[in-house]
Amino acid sequence: MAGIFDRFSNLMAQRDAILAGDGADPFQVKFDEVISQTEAMIGNRRIILCGTNNYLGLTFAPEALKAAHDALDAFGTGTTGSRVANGTYVGHKELERTLCEFFNKDHAIVFSTGFLANAGVLSTLMGPGDYILMDADCHASIYDGVRASQAEIIRFKHNDAADLDKRLARLADKPGNKLIVIEGIYSMLGDKAPMKDIVAVKKKHANTFLLSDEAHSVGVLGRYGRGLPEEAGCEDDVDFIVGTFSKSVGTVGGFVVSSYPDFGMLRLVCRPYIFTASLPPSVVASATVNLGLVKNGGALRTRLMRNAKVLHAGLSDLGLKLASDISPVIAVVAPDPQVAVAFWRGLIDAGVYVNLALPPATPYGYSLLRCSLCAAHTEEQLLEVIGIFKDVALNLGLIERQPRRVAVG
Amino acid sequence: MAASGDPSPDTLAALYDLLKPFNKTGVDLKQGTRFSEDLNFDSLVVMEFVATVEDHFDISVPMNMLPDIANVAELAAAVEKIVKADKG
Predict the structure, then answer these.
(1) Distance between CA B60 and CA A217 in Å, rounded?
(2) Which residues of chain B does A171 touch, with a Cβ-Cβ cutoff of 8 Å?
(3) Tell me, what's the ipTM?
(4) Cβ separation of B63 and A153 shorter than 8 Å?
(5) What is the DSSP letter of A264?
(6) How far apart are CA B88 and CA B86, in angstroms?
């Protein structure tokens, strides 16, 4: 008789081949203790965290910790219900009001995760006879969301506004609404959408709307941390902004904001909103407080970008192949999945945690050591990270021992 | 059986032409050639090839249709259906 997982046998064989040899399993890392935003313990070893998406380092903000503790004492450990049943507390409404003020939008809906926000909004915004035009490199939650919609799904080439324009032009005679879906910063390589160009294309076509997933860009881009729409100066042209509390905001949860009339009716039709327990009051309280810190976090953003420059320069001077420009996400390209795993194991053994990202989850079939930076990283920590990258890459024969830049004089 | 829904030789010839640069396994291209099993297409190649087909015929092939398209004949039928609907 066939086993129920037989259809995954190819995948299991691939996994076993990639993970062959001694060493930790990159997908089963366990931190025994978290010392700070940038350090944790695995067993009795100190690890520098360089892959947490904790861009502003707000996970231990004292104001947020206090608000979370207070909410925990006042409202308990969980709501035990969905938003439409018994799961809406005063804190959830306050958080939604805070989001409206933060983004200058009329409506905000909070979900229990960023994944659910995308899944909920994208499955319901467009319906039969409508079209969704999505960037090919969009996140899995966007793919799952649009698949659950009844709209026609069309992908356009990553960050290619001309390709999007061509595809929209083909739909000019179709009566349905069109929704363009992009991300502010793409998670794997840290590259930004060409938002101004995409807005220009949107304006050329009738009945066309724009949704941007700002998961990695809220807190990171814009003077007040409102993401790429703020930085690119097109906030009024982005009809729907999806985001998460699990990166710069330092906790967990997702949201969507919009000024589109009657947007709040999505609460009646979004199944991931209706049929999921709401966020615990302590999480809601810390998200609310941290949004204020994000807004006033100009100094943190400056430090984050300074850190990005240090790591980018250090890794590129080693002669490593980078797939990223200077951004809070810096991806190092390994020649193949096996080498990437060996690289990752070398790093963790020497005390650096980064994300291992393998195809098909990566663009261009890349095998990546994906680093993400934190405003709280010190220069000493980053120099240590660069030194460890150097040792491991030398051991693997990926770079030359000779320094690329010879000091003059 | 030559049902009225069979793809035209022109459509098939165009698809064989478009497939040539994507035929890394070097198989003989026939109506029954399967994209996944015979041509080893992964999701990235599918995306590129679909874009090529869209540009050639100046049509949109929604992602929703792809699960039902396993071989060349099925793609040809889908293309003809979309072209016909567009002329509508």
Answers:
(1) 31
(2) 60
(3) 0.84
(4) yes
(5) G
(6) 5
At residue A155, the 3 state secondary structure works out as strand
On whether any CB of chain A is under 8 Å from the CB of B85, the answer is: no
Asked if A385 contacts A311 with a C-beta cutoff of 8 angstroms, the reply is yes
Cis before A175? omega within 30: no
Contact status of A167 with chain B (Cβ, < 8 Å): yes
Q: Using alpha carbons, select from A392, A380, A227 the residue that is nearest to residue A297.
A: A227
Query: Does A49 score more than 90 pLDDT?
Result: yes
A343-359 pLDDT, tens digit each: 999 999 999 999 999 98
Helical spans, DSSP H, in A233-374 = 271-274, 281-295, 298-317, 337-350
Considering the candidates A139, A192, A216, A390, report the single residue annotated as catalytic. A216
Say yes or no for a CB contact (<8 Å) between B54 and A152: no
Cβ(B86)–Cβ(A172) under 8 Å?
Answer: no
Q: Cα angle at A241 between A257 and A261, to 5 degrees?
A: 45
Q: What is the pLDDT of residues B27-72, one digit of tens each?
A: 999 999 999 999 999 888 898 899 999 999 999 999 999 999 999 9
Out of A152, A157, A364, the one facing B64 most closely (by C-beta) is A152
> How far apart (Å, rounded) are the C-alpha atoms in residues A96 and A358?
36
Determine phi and psi for A182, rounding to 5 degrees: -135, 175
Q: Can you give the pTM of this predicted structure?
A: 0.93
**pLDDT, position A406:** 52
Confidence class for position B3, pLDDT limits 50, 70, 90: very low
